[in-house]
């Protein structure tokens, strides 16, 4: 099954991750291990929500909003798409993601599988 | 004859429902189909057993019948080759006298327990699923037991089953490295079931009262299948030791009788002996946990011939150990009671007042009730009466309110 791991956190969590000198390296190590095991489809970080544009179409009108779709303190900072046997495997993989120590990671099964 | 058949069907329902459902889930992965086919199997038993006689192994008969029904259903609905393959695999019959079905069945029941209590499900969903699929309670009965509408309970069950399917929660007994952690989850559900039933007053719905028996039954199955997990033995011991006192907890008029006033000859001696035996076996494994410690406390009470013989020093020490294992204000309150018995009410009161200052138990009726008891024993009647009044305002059940009102009258009237 495929699972999307949405890496969420508040601004503070983001700052703490950046301040942690070994954070990037441990993220790479996490991704490398998953790649070796054939479980990583893709993983990316995102620019902050200040750079986001939200699109809605109502009738014939394309409505744009400057910013994220929901104005919350917790924002999505990145995502990984993984291939796992079941939720238990996805839980184990997610618990080892370095960002889980700072923010929160939401596991969403893909609807197509 | 009909009465005998009815009894056999009732007994099979209690003993085999969970196993039948679990087997069909393992074979098809379809929880709703499993429940429907199990229901059909019992309906057929009601029709055929009066005519053909009760089969030698009712559980095996019911499982086979339910499985055949599942095969029929899958064949009829088969739209693709995959479904047909599934049906073909299902229809391989067990040989005559093949006991593999029974053995595989109990493993399936264990798989079902762990899947229902998977920590990715909300606790209330775990509880509801356990009662529906393992115990065979209807949605209406579960709703009644938890005082929510049938519609709410039905939605809760549908959502939980949907999540198991869509999120890929595996139907299995967790591997060794997860087993202890996941067992905690199952034990939590069984403990809640027991407490819900235990707290139900004599006049409460029978379904609710029967939750204690259901919790003990499931804990027995779990203990049988996981003999190396000492907390499972600890929980079963705890439930048996509490349940042993059931007959003495309420008097002839339905009033709550506190532990120290209970007629100990009415306690179930064989259940106490079994609980104590189980606890000793669990403790010998040298891996204590909260359920074992709570069972040890219950055993201290259960094995005291008279209230005055209670080993309060041991109980206070056990509550100290429990407070280290589970940092909970309620545990600290219980420890204060034990210390009050061991070292005198003033020592207990000091601990209660310390707890009050933290504000953690604000609104919990047993906090002022405990303070009231300690003040009464110190002869500080006016303060005791005020504390009883405070507790009375907060007490959630009628028997508890009547008990506190009696204490209040004794304190002000004496």
Keywords:
heterodimer; A: about 110 residues; alpha+beta; Alpha-Beta Plaits; four-stranded antiparallel β-sheet; two-stranded antiparallel ribbon; 6 strands; about 35% strand; globular; B: about 425 residues; mainly alpha; 3 domains; about 0% strand
What does this structure look like?
The complex is a heterodimer of chains A (113) and B (414). Chain A has helices spanning 11-19, 23-36, 87-95; strands at residues 2-9, 40-45, 53-58, 61-66, 75-83, 104-109. Chain A has a single domain (2-109), classed as Alpha-Beta Plaits (2-Layer Sandwich), CATH 3.30.70. By secondary structure, chain A is of the alpha+beta class. In chain B, helix 1 packs across helix 5 (100-116). Chain B has 3 domains: 1-98; 103-226, no CATH class; 236-310, no CATH class. The model of chain B is unreliable at 94-103 (pLDDT under 50). Chain B contains 21 helices and no strands. Helix content of chain B is 74%, strand content 0%. With 414 residues, chain B is mainly alpha-helical. The chains are: A alpha+beta (113), B mainly alpha (414). Chains A and B meet through helix 3 of A and loops of B.
Tell me the CATH architecture of chain A: 2-Layer Sandwich
H-E order of chain B: HHHHHHHHHHHHHHHHHHHHH
| Average pLDDT number of chain A | 92
Strand order in space, largest sheet of chain A: 2-5-1-6
Sheet bearing the most strands of chain B, described? Answer: none
User: What's the structural domain tally of chain B?
Assistant: 3
**What's the Cα radius of gyration of chain A?**
16 Å
Total DSSP helices of chain A: 3
Instruction: Give the total of beta strands of chain B.
Output: 0
Which stretches of chain A are poorly predicted, pLDDT < 50 over at least 5 residues?
none
How much of the sequence lies in strands of chain A comes to 35-45%
**Count of the domains of chain A:** 1
Q: Specify the structural class of chain B.
A: mainly alpha
In the predicted model, the low-confidence regions of chain B spanning at least 5 consecutive residues are: 94-103
The helical percent of chain A reads: 25-40%
Mean pLDDT of chain B, as a whole number? 90
Q: What is the CATH level 1 assignment of chain A? A: Alpha Beta
Quaternary organisation of the protein chains: heterodimer
Global outline of chain A: globular
